[in-house]
Amino acid sequence: MAAIISIKQLNKIYDSGFQALNQIDLEIEAGEIFALLGPNGAGKTTLISIICGIVNPSSGQVLADGHDVLRDYRQARGKIGLVPQELSTDSFETVWGAVNFSRGLFGKAPNPEYIEKILRDLSLWGKKDSRIMALSGGMKRRLMIAKALSHEPKILFLDEPTAGVDVELRRDMWEMVRGLRENGVTIILTTHYIEEAEEMADRIGVINKGKIVLVDDKKQLMQKLGKRELRLALKEPLDAIPATLKDYKLTLADDGYQLIYTFDSQSDHSGISELLRLLGDHGIDFKDLQTRESSLEEIFVSLVRSQQQDTGSTVSS
Fold first, then answer.
1. CATH for the 227-293 domain, from 3.40.190.10, 2.60.120.1060, 3.10.129.10, 3.30.70.1560
2. Is 3-222 CATH 3.40.50.300?
3. pLDDT recorded at residue 252
């Protein structure tokens, strides 16, 4: 599938000397949901701001649907809708007026039917004549999404869109995102709610300290980096793991009543059958067993921690 966003050798160094982005290369495919994950200060918002033409890069190139975001700013920006983290809009304007005004800013002809559909999809139709100052925080967030969609963009950025919003809005938003993707809109989101990325995204990108750590298909990422655990609920507690089982990745939990075995989910040989046989030989009986896979959050934390350790060892050397 063709890339709708193409980023090559992108750098951003602020006047203070701080390098927010370091040699970013990234392609985002048309029609996908791409989740950009990273800790606070990793460079997520700076990257989005450059693609949207809000911040100028120090060097490198960004194409949005084939348009250079610097040379062809108006054409590139017209392809993009942005829902920023911060809620900022004219408090004295009405909902209907604000969304129509946003559409007009991009040179689009009036389309009341389309604006009505957006407002209905976001449960804002009943508030269309209300002034923005009278809206709740959740309704203002819905309004920001409506404004971002007003000019029918092909690319939609959602920068921490569900931070601090209620469960109902979060559910409505993801239902709307799925519908937009079905209509060919490319969605790029940043989120602290990693379970949302795990549920919604087609691909995951991890950024840390201004560098792209990894980009992969979500399922493949979890298969390659995820681990599986076998948890055995023991009939009698263990004081210690027998020395003859030291070759197995075993840990004790719950005051010795639970034995946890970690193994590679991609390996052809899990070692479970041999482990269970050895436990039987040692007279270690269990009453229940469960398996679980690593979550995306665990993988993300592991990746960031690994990069920080690598960086630290590089600096110290």
1. 3.30.70.1560
2. yes
3. 86
